[in-house]
């Protein structure tokens, strides 16, 4: 299952609050054109077939195919250089750490 870091959860909470989404709203991850990557958007509710991850006051909605692709991944937020030379925060997908045997 997709893991969500505390930093990503805080970013999602901020985005959904700022957008004044209804209770139950969250971040939706879809793949309208899988060759172009994933698309993140805010949604007031999940689509009927979405896999819903919720906890820590945030919800993430995943298209079924996206849920499969991200099953062993982690959603995080990382700083990147912005066009003005400053730093921006962006969502990033990484590989989950494997527990040592």
TrEMBL record:
Name of this chain's protein: Fe-S cluster assembly iron-binding protein IscA
Residues covered by region (Disordered): 21-41
The organism of origin for this protein: Pseudonocardia cypriaca
What domain of life does the UniProt record list for this protein's source?
Bacteria
């Amino acid at each position: 299952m997709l893991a969500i870091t505390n930093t990503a959860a805080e970013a999602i909470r901020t985005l959904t609050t700022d957008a004044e989404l209804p209770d139950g709203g969250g971040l939706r991850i879809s793949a309208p054109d899988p060759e172009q990557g994933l698309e993140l958007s805010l949604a007031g509710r999940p689509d009927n077939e979405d896999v819903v991850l919720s906890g820590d006051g945030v919800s993430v909605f995943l298209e079924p195919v996206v849920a499969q692709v991200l099953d062993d991944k982690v959603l995080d937020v990382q700083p990147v250089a912005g066009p003005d030379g400053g730093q921006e925060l962006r969502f990033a997908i990484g590989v989950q750490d494997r527990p040592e045997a």
